[in-house]
Structures are given as C-alpha cells and as structure tokens.
Amino acid sequence: MTQPAIxxxxxxxxxxxxxxxxxxxxxxxxxVGAIANDIRDVVAMGVQVCVVIGGxxxxxxxxxxxxxxxxxxxxxxxxxxxxxxxxxxxxALERRNVPTRVQSAIPMSSVCEPYIRRRxxxxxxxxxxxxxxxxxxxPFFTTDTAAALRAAEMHCDALLKGTQxxxxxxxxxxxxxxxxxxxxxxxxxxxxxxxxxxxxxxISLARENHLPIIVFNxxxxxxxxxxxxxxxxxTRIVEAEL
Length: 242
Ligand code: UDP
Description:
The protein is an alpha/beta fold and 242 residues long.
C-alpha cells in the first residue's frame, strides 16, 4: 500500500529554467506538462498545493541592469515574465482537470486575480492549485523570497524547491564525481557556507517562520509525490535540534 502524504499544504517553487527543458530560452510545453502531471498526482493525494514560478527562462532583472537598464525597471520586466510562466502552467494544469487560479502580486485584472491572501487560502481549501505570479511585486527581490513569503502567509507545512538535482550536494554533482548529497542541513549551514540553494533573504524568512525547505529533483517523474510521502531522495533544511 502506498504511504499517505505527510504534509497537508505545501508551496512548490519552480525556477523559470525548470520550464525551459533543453531549450536556451522560453518554455518547453512538454516540460511544463511533465511538471503539471506531477502536481496533479500530488493534488490527487489530497495535498493542498500552491506554486511560485520564476521568470529566469525569459528575463532576469540583473541581466537587464547589466545591459544598462534601470534595475527596478528591469526587475518589473522580470516579474512580468513570471506571469507568462504562471499562465502557461495554469493551462497545463487545467488540461489535466486540475482546478487552478493565478494570483499576481502586480494586479492584472484581465488575465488573473490580484494577490489576496485570504482568497488564496480559500482556493486551496477547495482543492484548487494557486499559482502566485509576479514574485513579491517589488523590485530587488527574487521569486525564491516570494516563495518563502507566500509559504509563510499560506501557513504551508513545507517549502519545496524543485531543482535540477535531487538535493543539496557538497559540490556540483554534474561536475564533481564524488560530490555527496546532504540528507539534512540547518538554515545556518546554508547561510554560513553560502550554499547555492536559495538566496539568503529566502532562507532567513523560512527560518524565522519555522518553515522546512525540501530540495528535490523536479525533473524526476513522480519525485514530488514521493517527497510528499517522505520517500525518495531529497535534502531537508531545518533548524538545528537543541
Ligand atoms: N523579480 C523581482 N521581484 C520579485 C521576484 C522577481 O523583481 O519579488 C524579478 C527579478 O528581476 C528576477 C525576475 O523577476 O530576476 C525573475 O525571477 P527569478 O530570477 O527569481 O526567477 P528564477 O530564477 O526562479 O527563474
């Protein structure tokens, strides 16, 4: 018998790059569909799921700033990119009969709902997947920070960070053969060693709100559901035990 989910409500953070597949830019429909399948399966387990999607596959504020744009202006463009990704994921989920709402931190009433905390919680209680778009709505932040913020606001049991590998390693496992995966790290380990998991603001926010971060491989089919049962490979980031 398969194990039941050990979480009731989670937030999944996807980077824009996760939706890119083998392309250099933009969206790969197959990849979006594969991730939507995994989200559908987790929803079917009875887990309430919300999602924060990045925009790095389309536009990053720092790149715009590097080419001479005003940083805040470039960041707003980055936030708009996340809305495109959110709409793509909404389509993929709805094609799989998963009820979905997109809420944007930058109001965009013709395409999606504005971010309203209590409404988002209500959607989740009804089994709808809420996709949070436009990050925090503020320049100079990242969608990782938006993920920690929304996860705290939604009272999620965990923040799931879907990455290219199945956890946090001592070195890049795609480059270093004997790199080892950490089963568990503390927030301070990540901050002190500058481990490239999420930015420091996101880690600090998660820490302050006692929000476990689980890093897993978003490209391994079924891994999201496995993690929800406490199975498979992943790294947990939590507070040090006293
Ligand atoms: N961004 C922002 N404020 C936020 C979230 C995102 O200004 O709260 C902008 C920023 O320019 C960033 C871009 O949106 O580069 C895309 O987000 P991010 O880089 O976090 O996406 P990811 O790396 O997850 O694909």
